[in-house]
Each structure stands twice: as structure tokens, then as C-alpha cells.
Amino acid sequence: MNNPTLLCLFFLFYPTVFLHAYSDLETLLKLKSSLVGPSGSGLHDWAAPPSPSSSAHCSFSGVTCDVDGRVTSLNVANVPLFGTLPPEIGLLDKLVNLTLAGNKLSGHLPVEMSNLTSLKYVNLSWNVFDGTLPGEVVLKLTELEVFDVYNNNFSGNLPAEFVKLKNLKFLKLAGNYFSGEIPEVYSEFQGLTHLALQGNSLTGKIPAGLARIPNLQELYLGYFNTYEGGIPPEFGSISTLQLLDLGMCNLTGEIPASLGNLKHLHTLFLQVNNLTGRLPSELSGLMSLMSLDLSINNLSGEIPESFSKLKNLTLINLFQNKFHGPLPGFIGDLPNLEVLQIWNNNFTMGLPENLGRNGRLMLLDVTKNHLTGTLPRDLCKGGRLKTLILMDNYFYGPLPEELGECKSLTRIRIKKNF
Ligand SMILES: *[C@@H]1O[C@H](CO)[C@@H](O)[C@H](O)[C@H]1NC(C)=O
Ligand SMILES: *[C@@H]1O[C@H](CO)[C@@H](O)[C@H](O)[C@H]1NC(C)=O
Ligand SMILES: *[C@@H]1O[C@H](CO)[C@@H](O)[C@H](O)[C@H]1NC(C)=O
Ligand SMILES: *[C@@H]1O[C@H](CO)[C@@H](O)[C@H](O)[C@H]1NC(C)=O
Ligand SMILES: *[C@@H]1O[C@H](CO)[C@@H](O)[C@H](O)[C@H]1NC(C)=O
Ligand SMILES: *[C@@H]1O[C@H](CO)[C@@H](O)[C@H](O)[C@H]1NC(C)=O
Ligand SMILES: *[C@@H]1O[C@H](CO)[C@@H](O)[C@H](O)[C@H]1NC(C)=O
Ligand SMILES: *[C@@H]1O[C@H](CO)[C@@H](O)[C@H](O)[C@H]1NC(C)=O
Ligand SMILES: *[C@@H]1O[C@H](CO)[C@@H](O)[C@H](O)[C@H]1NC(C)=O
Q1: Residue 398 DSSP SS3
Q2: Which candidate, 404, 323, 408, places its Cα nearest to that of 364?
Q3: pLDDT tens sequence across 49-81
Q4: How confident is the model at residue 381 (pLDDT cuts 50, 70, 90)?
Q5: Which letter does DSSP use for residue 282 in this model?
Q6: Domains present along the chain, CATH in parentheses
Q7: DSSP secondary structure, 92-161, as one string
Q8: Which among 323, 327, 262 is positioned nearest to 290, based on CA atoms?
């Protein structure tokens, strides 16, 4: 142990490490003065130690350090902190995980964040940050895997630079005021599994090229975005896709039959658009489908018999369309069906006799159709039925005795029948 070289090395490196750690303490104290809570409170235990220490700041709440006492993780979530993120954040250049979610932070993101080149995980969701997301900041964060700024006040165009980040898996820019078109280059994402752009002010056509993202699993593009045109038929080739949410974004045209190729899709949300035409019978290929919402569109025709293959359906919303014809019997046999809402259509004939026999039915609303016959006996078989709305149809006969014992029912409306 009396090795002079080792000793020498120790003295060479020790002070630098120490100095860096000490300045991380100063940086955190600077952050504290900027991230203020109601009447100056917040981050109570972030305080300078009585004597200089290389690691005192590492035990501040929400702070994690590496062995050198450098800050690697900052996690301050769901505390009311007003104020802004100061430029000094750029000095914490070993930061891997920056989670400042659910506070009340505002202002622009400092460009100094481009110094945080170790960042893998950024979660600034549920704040009121505003201004643009500068591409030059994004570009330098080459290690980034997760970037979540859901529900803030960011505006301007979506930065094209994200596509250069080869490790990026999860990108959530939803719930802001981003405008302009979805950049065509977003088609070149390589590792992205989750893309959420919903709830912005995006316009233009949905780029068909998004279908080229190789491992995409969840795609959210709807809500307040108002696109031109319809659903790109190319989306039927995103073989890894599990969730597609294009609700409420001014889509026109028909539902592409190609979507039926999405064998892993469990959720398809296309509600509140101007979609027309029939339900393609090819959608029976959606063998994993659990939730189907096509409500408030301009769809017509009958429910294809081929849909009897969709055994895992749990939620079916078809209300406010122009569907007609009978409700096929297989709907009564779906083992997991919980929600069936088909109000404001032109469905005829009776309700499937077995409806509710699966013991899972919770919500049935068939208002304003031309349904007739007597009511199925087992609607409340599992004791889970909460809402039963049958108004404005041609049902007749007595209410089944079984319904009288349905203790779970909180809402029932049956007027305007025979
Ligand atoms: C960026 O990092 C370098 C060294 O890592 C540092 O000298 C510089 O002050 C930092 N700049 C900002 C704006 O944080
Ligand atoms: C980052 O920090 C948050 C909050 O502590 C944690 O939930 C998350 O797992 C961390 N992420 C990574 C990649 O370390
Ligand atoms: C970001 O934080 C919010 C609030 O804590 C959380 O709901 C969300 O799941 C986090 N995002 C990611 C990608 O982990
Ligand atoms: C966020 O932006 C909206 C719309 O521009 C504005 O009404 C709201 O006041 C902003 N919130 C804050 C805290 O800046
Ligand atoms: C809605 O879609 C129609 C048809 O594609 C288009 O003409 C119209 O401009 C779109 N509305 C907006 C607000 O973009
Ligand atoms: C459907 O299109 C009409 C006429 O272009 C428009 O007024 C209406 O808002 C659209 N509805 C939806 C749900 O997009
Ligand atoms: C259908 O649901 C069951 C039970 O939830 C699940 O085990 C099965 O994998 C699902 N089938 C498909 C094709 O997703
Ligand atoms: C629905 O489609 C019909 C034609 O089939 C059209 O006349 C009507 O304007 C459409 N309604 C909406 C809201 O787009
Ligand atoms: C139902 O059909 C009738 C006659 O065919 C038509 O006038 C009415 O608009 C249709 N209603 C709906 C909601 O499609």
C-alpha cells in the first residue's frame, strides 16, 4: 500500500471529484431557489451542510448520485413547485434520469439542457412549460430513451431532430399546443415503440410513412388535431401495433380493410370523426382486439358475421352512426363483453338472447334504434350491470324477473317502448 504512484494518483483525482461534487451541491441549491413552492416552501431538506461535504446533497430527497457524488437522478414529482427550470440545470451533466413531473413549473426549457448528454429518461409531464422545444437541445441528447412532456404548454413545430436519437423508444409530446404537420421524417424512427402526439393542434395529412417504424406498438394521434384526409391504408402493415388511437381528428374516408392485418392490436379508437362506408369484413383478422370504438362517425351497413372471430372483445362502441340490420347473435356469446353502446343507429330485430350470460356485462345502451322482441333474461347474471338504457325502441313484454334482483343497477331507462 506504500505505492507512491497510487498515492500520487489519489491526490491528483480526489480534489477534482470533490470539487465537482461540491458544485453539484451548489447547482441543486440554485435549483431550489428557482423551483419554489407555495409561499417559498418546497424541497425542505435541500440545505447546505454545516461543513463542506462531497456527498451531503446525495441524500436530498429525490436526488441520487454515482460513486463520485455526481447527481445521476433527480426525481421531484407531484409536489407544488412554481417557478422555472434555471440554466444551471445544464451543469448536472451526469444526469441520467430527470423526472420533474406533476409540479407547476413554467417558462421555457433552458437551452443549457443540451449539456445533459447522459440523459436517458426525461419526464416533465403535467407542468406548464411553454415555448418551443429547441431542436438543438434535442439533438445532443443522444442517449435518450424516454421523453415525456405530456400536458404542458409547448408550442411551435414538432422537432424533427428526435428522429436522430437512435435509442429513443418512448416519445410523448401529447397535450401541448404543437402545430404544423407531423414531420415526414418521423417515418425514420428506428427503435420507437410508443409515439403519442394526441391533443395538439397538428394539421395536414397523417404521414403514411409512420407505418415504416419497425417496432411500433402504440400510436396516438387524435384529439384536437385536425388532419386532412383519412387513415393511411399503410397502417395495416405495422405488424407490431397493439394500440391505435385516432379519435377525434377530422378523419374522412373509409376504414381501410388492411387494418385487419394487425394481429396484435388490442385497441382501435376511431371515434368522433367523419368516417364513411361499411365495416370491412377483413377486420375479423384483428384477433387480439378487446376495445373497438367507432362511435360518432358516418359509418353504415351491417355488422359483418365474420366479426364472430373477435372473441376477445370487451368494449364495443358503435353509437351515432348509420348502422342497420340485426345485432348478430355472436355478440351475446362474447365471453368478455362488458360494454355495448349502439345508440342512435338503425339496428333492427331483437337483442341477442345470450347477452349478459357471460356474467360480465356492465353497460348496455341501445337507445334510438328499431329493436324489438323481449329482453334477454341474463343481462345482470354476473351482478355487474350498472347501466341499462333501452329507450326509443320497440321492445315489448314484461321486464325479466331476474332484472328485479339486479342490485348493481344504478341507472335504468326504458321509456318509449311498447
Ligand atoms: C456545459 O458543460 C460544460 C462541461 O461539461 C461546462 O463547462 C459548461 O459550463 C456547461 N454549460 C452550461 C451552459 O451549462
Ligand atoms: C427514473 O426515475 C423515476 C422516478 O424515480 C423512476 O420511476 C424511473 O424508473 C426511473 N427511470 C429510469 C430509466 O431509471
Ligand atoms: C411521467 O410521470 C407521470 C406522473 O408521475 C407518470 O404518470 C408517467 O407515467 C410518467 N411517464 C413515463 C414515460 O414513465
Ligand atoms: C397555457 O396555454 C393556454 C393557451 O394558450 C393558456 O390559456 C394558459 O393560460 C397557459 N397556461 C399557463 C400557465 O401559461
Ligand atoms: C377536415 O377534413 C376535410 C376533408 O379532408 C378538410 O377539407 C378540412 O380542411 C379539414 N378540417 C380542418 C380544420 O383541417
Ligand atoms: C364532419 O364534417 C362536417 C362537414 O365537413 C363538419 O362540420 C363536422 O364537424 C365533422 N365532424 C367531425 C366529428 O369531424
Ligand atoms: C384473449 O384473451 C385471453 C384472456 O384475456 C388471453 O389469454 C388471450 O391471449 C387473448 N387472445 C388474443 C389473441 O389476444
Ligand atoms: C354523412 O354522410 C352523408 C352521405 O352518406 C352526408 O350527406 C352527410 O353530410 C355526412 N355527415 C357528416 C356529419 O359528415
Ligand atoms: C334510419 O333509417 C331511416 C329510414 O331508412 C332513415 O330515415 C334514418 O335517417 C336512419 N337513421 C339513422 C340514425 O341512420
Answers
A1: coil
A2: 408
A3: 887 777 889 989 899 999 998 999 999 988 888
A4: very high
A5: G
A6: 1-43+54-131 (3.80.10.10)
A7: -TT--EEE--SS--EEPPPGGGGG-TT--EEE--SSEEEE---HHHHHH-TT--EEE--SSEEEEEPPGG
A8: 262
Give the nearest ligand 1 atom to 90 CA.
Answer: 14
Residue 146 gets the label, from left (phi > 0), alpha (psi -120 to 50) or beta, of beta
Name which residue sits closest to atom 6 of ligand 9, judged by CA: 346
- Identify the residues whose C-beta falls under 6 Å from ligand 7: 287-288, 312
Report the pocket of ligand 4 as residue ranges, CB < 6 Å.
Answer: 106, 128, 130, 153
Rounded to whole angstroms, how far apart are CA atoms 171 and 147? 5
Which residue is listed with cell 340485426?
326
d(CA 280, ligand 9 centre) in Å: 21
**Other Cβ atoms closer than 10 A to 364:** 24
Mutate to test the pocket of ligand 8, among 248, 254, 276, 345 (most ligand atoms within 8 A of CB): 276
Look at strands 177-181 and 153-157 and give their pairing: parallel
Asked whether the beta carbons of 113 and 92 are under 8 A apart, the reply is no
Give the residue whose CA is nearest to atom 9 of ligand 7. Answer: 288
CB distance 295 to 316 below 8 Å: no
Strand order in the sheet with 274-277: 252-253, 274-277, 298-301, 322-326, 346-349, 370-373, 394-395
| pLDDT > 50? residue 17 | no
Q: How far is the CA of 298 from the centre of ligand 8 (A)?
A: 6
Output the ligand 6 site: residues, CB below 6 A: 250, 272-274
> What residues are in contact with ligand 8 under a 6 Å CB criterion?
274, 276, 298
Q: How far is the CA of 51 from the centre of ligand 1 (A)?
A: 26
> Given a cut of 50, is residue 122 above it in pLDDT?
yes
- The yes-or-no verdict on residue 38 having pLDDT over 80 is no
Question: How many Å apart are CA 256 and CA 278, to the nearest integer?
Answer: 10
pTM of the predicted model, to two decimals? 0.90
Going by CA atoms, what residue is nearest to atom 2 of ligand 6? 274
Pairing of strands 370-373, 346-349: parallel
Query: What are the pLDDT digits (tens) for 258-290?
Result: 999 999 999 999 999 999 999 999 999 999 999
Q: How far is the CA of 129 from the centre of ligand 7 (A)?
A: 41
